């Protein structure tokens, strides 16, 4: 199976579009780079797969972000996706509170316990649009998929069906995740009532077919995307479009970090100096950038100019 791909497709007369995301090595690369606790890896894997399924649209160039913010114990989780298929992700949590919660719940806390007060935020920064699109919805549901369905209803998205699966075997094979999404495009105003009814009936069929997919099928290394989509949707004529590769890649750089430092006050910059240097580590990829005395002075001088 070709892992780390996004396979777009459409059903019937293209009123329903879908994407199948399958992640292996590249997801593994992100998670192993962080060494987060298992429960964090689980939710971050799901968020990354969902984020990719939501974002990449062959017609739009830009940057997409799916984020959970303001959580009480798992404070923040984010995945960035470029239209090129480059992804990066990270998470922040209260370690002491998480350990206590894991102990109290025998390692199986509910989503609500982990993300209490959290919000789902989806941002699309498209090259073709001057203003970015952002939707923010309260996190509500017992699984991330439930939360996403709530999000789709609340944020005026297209009618959407979504299934997600993750697997972790840190001892040997590493992590994998998959997401399958279907979206119903709005009916054209030229359609007759009978055609609209047919679209609605088809949509109900599509959702029930989507509901038959198993976690095992989604994550099965020996079942290609084509074979899986054919198995699920053959009665609805699945038209499969060229797949896109997904790559774990951070786009942090020294100039970007310098720009971030420039936004701090002179006093704050001086407070960051330790052993005559400033060390900044990218939260996404753990790359460390060091600034020595003269480089710090240059940044301070640039700030003044
Ligand atoms: Zn980075």
In short:
37% of the residues lie in helices and 30% in strands. The protein has 305 residues and is an alpha+beta fold.
Key words describing this protein structure:
CBS domain Like; 2 domains; 30% strand; 305 residues; Hsp33 domain; globular; six-stranded mixed β-sheet
Anisotropy-based shape:
globular
Largest β sheet strand count, sense and barrel closure: 6 strands, antiparallel
What is the tally of helical segments?
11
Highest CATH level, the class of the largest domain: Alpha Beta
Structural domain count: 2
CATH topology of the largest domain: Hsp33 domain
- The CATH superfamily of the largest domain is identified as Hsp33 domain
> Share of helix among residues?
25-40%
Bound molecules: zinc ion
């Amino acid at each position: 199976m070709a892992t780390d791909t996004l396979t777009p497709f459409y059903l019937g007369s293209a009123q329903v579009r879908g994407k199948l995301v399958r992640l292996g090595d590249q997801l593994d690369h992100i998670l192993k780079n962080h060494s987060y606790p298992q429960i964090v890896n689980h939710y971050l894997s799901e968020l990354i797969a969902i984020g990719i399924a939501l974002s990449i649209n062959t017609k739009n160039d830009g940057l997409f972000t799916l984020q959970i913010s303001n959580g009480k114990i798992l404070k923040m989780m984010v995945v960035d996706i470029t239209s090129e298929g480059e992804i990066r992700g990270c998470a922040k949590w209260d370690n002491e509170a998480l350990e206590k919660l894991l102990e109290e719940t025998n390692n199986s806390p509910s989503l609500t316990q982990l993300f209490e007060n959290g919000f789902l935020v989806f941002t699309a920064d498209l090259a073709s649009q001057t203003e970015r699109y952002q939707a923010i919805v309260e996190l509500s549901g017992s699984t991330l998929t439930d939360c996403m369905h709530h999000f789709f209803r609340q944020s005026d998205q297209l009618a959407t069906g979504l299934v997600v699966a993750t697997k972790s075997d840190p001892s040997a094979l590493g992590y994998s995740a998959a997401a399958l999404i279907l979206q119903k495009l709005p009916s054209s105003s030229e359609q007759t009532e009978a055609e609209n009814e047919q679209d609605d009936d088809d949509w109900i069929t599509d959702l029930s077919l989507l509901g038959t997919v198993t976690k095992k099928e989604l994550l099965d290394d020996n079942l290609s995307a084509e074979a899986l989509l054919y198995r699920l949707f053959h009665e609805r004529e699945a038209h499969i479009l060229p797949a896109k590769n997904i790559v774990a890649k951070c786009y942090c750089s020294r100039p970007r970090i310098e720009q971030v430092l420039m936004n701090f006050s002179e006093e704050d910059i001086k407070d960051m100096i330790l052993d005559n240097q400033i060390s900044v580590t990218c939260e996404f990829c753990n790359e460390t950038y060091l600034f020595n005395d003269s480089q710090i002075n240059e940044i301070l001088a640039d700030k003044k100019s």
